[in-house]
Amino acid sequence: MTTISNKHILSKSTFIRGCICKKSLWLSKHMRDLIAPTAPGQQFIFDQGHDVGKLAQQLFPGGTDASPSSPFDYRPSLELTQKLIAEGRQVIYEAAFQQEEVLAALDILVWDQGWHAYEVKSSTKVHDINLTDAALQYWVMEKSGIKVESFSIIHLNSDYERIGDIVVEKLFKIEPVTYLIQALQDEITEQVASLKKVCSRKTVPAIPIGTQCTKPYTCDFKDHCFSHVPEESILDFDLYRKEERFRLYHAGIKKISDVKEWQKLKPPYNFIVESHINKGFYFDPIKLKEFVSKLQYPLLFMDFETVAFALPPFNNSSPYDAMTFQYSLHTIESEDAEPLHNFFLADPAKDFREDFIKALLADLGESGDILVWSVSFERSKLNMLSLLYPQYEERVNAVIVRLVDLAIPFQKRWVYDNTLSCSYSIKSVLPFVMPDLSYDNLAVKEGQTASLLFQQMMAEPQKDWTKERNDLLEYCCLDTFAMVVIYRYLNTLV
After folding, report:
1. pTM summary value
2. What pairing do the DSSP bridges indicate for beta strands 370-372 and 64-65?
3. Structural element, H or E, at residue 156
4. Mean pLDDT in consecutive groups of 10 residues from the start of the chain, 494 residues
5. Pairwise CA distance, residues 61 & 24, whole Å
6. Would you put residue 279 in left (φ > 0), alpha (ψ -120 to 50) or beta?
7. What domains appear along the chain, each with residue ranges and CATH number?
8. Residue of 133, 104, 143 lying closest to 10 (CA atoms)
C-alpha cells in the first residue's frame, strides 16, 4: 500500500463520464453550475441503487463498512481501508483505493485465499459500461498493491419471484468478469492519461452533440449543449436513424424544413417536410375515416399508471415489475353523450394488484371499444395481471381484444401539423388539438412524477396523502379526458 494523497483528479464516475464524452468531463470539472438539477425520478433510481447495494452485502455478511462520512472527503475511507486490510479483515464494504490521482471505491472486497472483488449493479444484466467501470477499479486496486484473484459483478436476477421474505442468494446473480476486464487494462491506462489531460485543459473540448448525449444515459449537460438546437429540428425527424440525423444536423440541415429533395421521400415523410416548409396541416381523409368509422360504442378511454421497484415489494413480484396502481376511464355511451368518469387509485398500504384488476373489469363492462394511447403498454400490463391471477384470464383476454390505439392516426401521420415536430405523444398532440387544455397547471404533469409520488406513499402509508391522491387523480383524469377531446377532433375531420 502506498502513501495517500489528499486529492484525486479522476474518480470512477468522472472516468466513466469522460469515456462517454470528454466535453462532459471538462464541464463537470470547470462549469458545474451548468449541470441540470437532478430529476426526482432520477434521484429515486439513485436511492434504489443504494438499497440494492446494501442488500447485496448480505451475500458476504459480517463485513466492515469503510465508506466515508462525506463524499467530498475520501481520505478517511482510504485510510480505513488500508487499516482493515492490515488487520486481516476478510470482508470490507466500500473499500477505497487511490493511485496516480485516480480514486475508486469497491462495493465488496472479500479475502478467501486471495482478494475477490465484487461490484453491485441495480440492473438485471451486465452492460458494457459496467465492464469499463469494473476495469478501472481493477486497474486502481492492482496499482495499489492488491492482487485481485477474481472480479465479479453482482446484479439483480430478473427471473427471481418473491415468495415470502426476499431470498438474497436468489435475488442476485454473480457474474465473473475477470478475464474481460483484464483485457481492457491497456485501454484503461491510455484513457486515464488522456482524461487527465482533458481535466487540465483551459478550454472546453470541441465535441459536437451526438448519440453520446443520451446513451448509455442522458447527460446532465444535455440542456446546455442542445441550447442551440432549434424547434422543429432535424433531430426529431424519425425517417432517419439517430446517427444520420446528427450527421445531417452538423452538415447544416438544422430543421426538418431544410431537408433537400423532399418531394422524393415516400409518404408520409414528404408531406411532413412540406408541412414544416409551409407551416401547414396535413391529413389523410381516407385512412382517418376508415379508422374512426370502425369504432364501436360505447367508447371507453383508458389510461394506466404504474410503479416499479428494484427490490420486489410483494409476493409473486420480480425486480422492476411495472405494477398498475391507478387507472382513469372516461366512457361515451353514444355519439352525443357526455363522457362519464370512473377511476381507481390503490391503497398504498397493501398489495393492490388484484383490487386493481377487479375494479377495472367491473368498470369496463363487456362491450364497446377501449381506446388507449400506445396500446402495447396497457396490453402488456393486462397480460401480466392475467398471468398473476389466472382466475381472471378469460375476462382479461376479452378486454385485450377490445383495445384500440388512439395514437395510430398521429403515429402513422394520417394527421400531422408542423407544431408536432414528429412527436405523437399525447402531451404533444393535446396542445395542437386544444391549446387551452394543458398539463401545465397540474401538480403532477407526467407519469414518472406520478410513479414517484405513489412510491413515496407506499413508503409511508400511514401519512395523510389526501392532497397527493387528488393530484394523482387529476393527472390521470386529464390523460383520458384528453383522449376524448382528441377523438372528437378526429371525428370532426372526417
Report:
1. 0.92
2. unpaired
3. strand 148-156
4. 71 97 97 82 77 97 93 90 96 97 97 97 96 98 96 98 97 98 98 97 97 94 96 96 97 97 94 95 94 97 96 97 98 94 97 98 97 97 97 98 98 96 96 92 92 93 96 97 97 91
5. 38
6. left
7. 12-200 (3.90.320.10), 232-279 (no CATH), 288-493 (3.30.420.10)
8. 104
